[in-house]
Amino acid sequence: MLKLLDGPQTLGRGRIFWSGFLAVLAGALIYPLFADSYDVGNFAYFLIWIFMALGLCLMWGYGGMLSFGQTFFFGIAGYGYGVLAINMGGGTATIAALVLSVVIAMIAAGILGYFMIWGGISGIFFGIVTLSATLVLAFFLGQTAGPEWHIGPARLNGFNGMKGMDPLTVGDFDIEGSALYYVMIALIVVVYIALRMLMNSSVGNVIVATRENPQRAEMLGYDVRKYQLLTFVIGSGLAGLSGALYTSWGQFITPSSIGLPAAAMPIVWVAFSGRNDLTATLVGSFLLLFGFQTITVYSQQAALVLMGALLLATVMLAPQGFVLGIGKLVVGWWGRRRRRDEAAALADTARLQSDET
Amino acid sequence: MALVDVKGVSKRFGGLTAVSDVDLTVNAGEVHCLIGPNGAGKSTLFKLIVGLYPPTKGSIFFDSVDITAERPYARVQRGMSIKMQAPSVFKELPVRQNIQIALQERLSGAERMEEEDRLLALLDLADDSGKLAGALSHGQQQWLEIGMALALQPQLLLLDEPTAGMSPEETHKTGELIKSFNAGGMTVLVVEHDMAFVRQVAQRVTVLHLGKIFARGSLEAILADEKVAEIYLGKTHAH
Hints:
The structure holds 2 protein chains of 2 kinds. By secondary structure, chain A is mostly helical. Chain A has 13 helices and 6 strands. Chain A is globular, with a radius of gyration of 22 Å. Chain B has helices spanning 42-50, 72-78, 95-103, 109-122, 138-151, 168-183, 195-201, 219-224, 226-233, 235-238; strands spanning 2-13, 16-27, 31-35, 57-62, 65-66, 80-83, 156-160, 187-191, 204-209, 212-218. In chain B, the strands form 2 sheets. In chain B, strands 6-7-8-3-9-10 form a 6-stranded mixed sheet, with helices on both faces. In chain B, strands 2-1-4-5 form a 4-stranded antiparallel sheet, covered by helices on one side.
């Protein structure tokens, strides 16, 4: 199984890469010991969105399906968590609410994906349908301000959004602050490793084959629709995980987190990072979220304009993504240096042998 | 015994009838060539057999099972394997990974690695196994696709113009490869223009003209048929 951690579908391999990974992980684990609780809370907030970025990377970069509506599943799971947590009474039941809300998002992805994929929708139309879905959901939730819009005691509350749900809780312990940060780190490590293993497995081989040439993949005996649906459901489930964690983190969710600007953000993160690689997406998305949040403190409009400019720059200057491009440069440089060192060592050995004779 | 049985198949595209009421039998263990001038309906018939087009009329049987309504992947799972007219490989993936994707359902672990190496050596692609498939020459891409089709160990190998764009040496080598697969028991249906290649590999030949069966029989009989020569020169069409 561990062999699947490295493979042709993922950048970075071998002892040096995994040593670097462990060093970053160790840094992330000791960070709360040195930072104040506000910064740790902010970091936990950035990390919430990473799951949605990784899911889109899987669907778009590996599977070739550009979904412009990952916020649809984010919203379903976000509101789902709120409704379930309120109706189930909070406490440890919030863990069940988190899991169930992600499952609901995956079921929604299964239904929408079935009709799109079996209906032959692909390319730009895939993006249009998914975008339409999220806009319809945002519009619908926006008009639920009246008291009649409730599920049990959970009021949807229109544009003001839903509130009053408990954060993730185990027994009497609320998972907030540093605890939430550690949960995020653990979940990201699990999801990242699982996705690497998936993409370097035989299933991952077929997923990239369906992106490259779906007809050829079918001519090798694969029902490409099933692989596309699987990719769509997993990617959307990860968007749902972001949504449920977001609601539990802030204990509120509004339709604006499902609307057009929110829907565009994951596209910018993943395009800038490099949609064809999980590590590039993980690193790039975190950097962008950190930068976006830092600028938002001063001006939200400026942050949005910067995101738009970054998307344009990516499309025009580095269509495969800036972070992935830099990553490939580093890997190429490292490989050339190793080959040069090996050649020099061989030449030295040959010279020594000729000197001895 | 018939491995493929095409019964009364027609295919219309709007007002154009590309294939009209065609019956074709491909026997198990033979190399059967489908020839005819441009526009005869060869590639359309090929696509009907592999399931890329649904027929307007008629039925297609594989190993005595009606597969008319089945999707291409299901036909492949029954034992068909296809090489398309234009090279159809995974261009952004390395050559070895192309072969691996074709093999992985049948073999795993060391066995798969061995078979990858054997196929790459057979197709003269061992030195290029790390290259992206899109960086190969046209002829090499054709061989890679043939290798992917072979990796499935099919009962029936369907080849649509397998030598298009190949040099005479590459064409001859491809012919020898096909003969060696056939000697191992594989049935082969080839759509081809190149008559030298057809002479090299064919055991039975079917001639299509204007979407209909024009002639069929042994290679010698077809080569001796003056009417077949005429349609290739356009005389019948002119009359």
